[in-house]
């Protein structure tokens, strides 16, 4: 009986010693990174450059993407938060829109993410303002992935009544 017990203990220790269970190895927890981008907005970045009264305007835009991914890591849905700061515009400048467009510097492109800012919803009474547009749906998840992969191929711009095609513009730059 003692012999069987010793044999069973040796077998158990052998099996335990052959195990791949290394308690020092840990699996990293998945991270939910929300990519953040900035754009330095200037009238000289518009195509063609703005030369009228809005030419004194400038600003910054910060855009944060929140993505949902499937088990394979593909983006299946995305939203964007926009924080925009503008200054140097003529008093009472009225904004008519603000968007992300797809195009490299020096070229104009189509709107791919609309902030849904309504014409006239923001007026720069003193020539400066800040505004936010939060949880804006990115209607095409492949656009969110394209922005993450190559932000320089996208720009953000703000439109005014004096410059309906865009008053200030800046290419996206990833900051995290």
Could you describe the 3D structure shown?
The chain is mainly beta. The chain has a single domain (34-174), classed as Immunoglobulin-like, CATH 2.60.40. It has 2 helices and 10 strands, in the order H-E-E-E-E-E-E-E-H-E-E-E. The chain has helices at 2-17, 141-149; strands spanning 36-41, 58-69, 75-87, 93-102, 111-114, 123-124, 129-138, 154-160, 168-171, 173-174. The strands form 2 sheets. Strands 7-3-2-1-10 form a 5-stranded antiparallel sheet. The longest helix is centred in the first third of the chain and has 16 residues, at 2-17. 26% of the residues are buried. The model is unreliable at 5-19 and 27-31 (pLDDT under 50).
Quote the average pLDDT.
88
Give the class from helix and strand content and strand pairing. mainly beta
The CATH architecture can be named as Sandwich
Please compute the radius of gyration using only Cα atoms: 27 Å
Question: How many alpha or pi helices?
Answer: 2
Q: Output the helix-strand order.
A: HEEEEEEEHEEE
Number of structural units classed as domains:
1
Reported by name, the CATH topology is Immunoglobulin-like
Low-confidence stretches: 5-19, 27-31
Query: How is the biggest beta sheet arranged?
Result: 5 strands, antiparallel
Distance between the termini: 66 Å
Shape annotation: globular
> What's the assembly state of these chains?
single chain
Strand order of the largest sheet: 7-3-2-1-10
Number of distinct beta strands: 10
- What portion of residues is helical? 10-25%
Main CATH class:
Mainly Beta
Q: What portion of the residues fall into strands of 2 or more residues? A: 35-45%
């Amino acid at each position: 009986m003692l012999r069987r017990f010793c044999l069973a203990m040796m077998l158990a220790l052998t099996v335990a010693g052959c195990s791949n269970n290394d308690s020092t190895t840990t699996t990293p927890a998945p991270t939910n990174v929300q990519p953040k981008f900035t754009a330095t907005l200037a009238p000289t970045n518009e195509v063609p450059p703005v030369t009228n009264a809005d030419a004194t305007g400038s600003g910054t835009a910060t855009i944060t993407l929140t993505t949902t991914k499937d088990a394979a890591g593909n983006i299946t849905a995305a939203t964007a938060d926009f924080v925009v700061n503008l200054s140097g515009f003529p008093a009472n400048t009225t904004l008519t829109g603000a968007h992300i467009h797809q195009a490299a510097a020096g070229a104009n492109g189509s709107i791919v993410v609309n902030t849904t800012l309504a014409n006239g919803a923001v007026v720069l009474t003193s020539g400066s303002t800040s505004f936010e547009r939060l949880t804006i749906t990115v209607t095409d998840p492949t656009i969110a992935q394209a922005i993450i992969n190559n932000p320089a191929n996208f720009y953000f711009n703000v439109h005014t009544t004096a410059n309906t095609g865009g008053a200030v513009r800046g290419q996206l730059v990833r900051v995290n």
